[in-house]
Amino acid sequence: MYRKMFSIVMVFVISFGVMAASDGHAFGIFGQHKSVSAVGDEVRIPIKDIDDGDAHYYEYEGGGTDIKFFVVKSSDGVLRAAFDACDVCFSAKKGYTQDGDFMICNNCGRRFHSSQINVVEGGCNPAPLHREMVGDNLVIKIEDILPGARFF
User: Fold this and answer.
1) At 42, which helix (H) or strand (E)?
2) Which of 8, 57, 105, 152 could serve as 33's disulfide partner, Cβ 3.0–4.6 Å?
3) What is the DSSP-derived secondary structure letter of residue 151?
4) Distance CA 56, CA 91 (A)
């Protein structure tokens, strides 16, 4: 009896450690989105902070809604941005997890090559978020972020 209980406890301890090490995004339980604020009418993210090929998750509070998005440098060298939601699975509020060059929907499991973010839209593709590089920053206008509130 004690062995069985010990085994169950160990499964939970190991699972929690895996979730903590993965930043929790794949499991949707930890606050993995970094809060960003507007400077004037835009959000500025230093390119040096996002130029590593990893997906970086952010949220902007707009009108009482935390609007979540991610930025990733795709394998073709382009910085891309999308809402952490899609037209199909957004109601599940699970977003995407990165797996190498792919972003994976945490709800349905579909995989999207990072080079197609901001190119292909609709369906379960990450909903594109307009962005531009200005100097040493990736700039996203608040007027482009606010329509994403419908997903959250």
Assistant:
1) strand 42-46
2) 57
3) G
4) 22
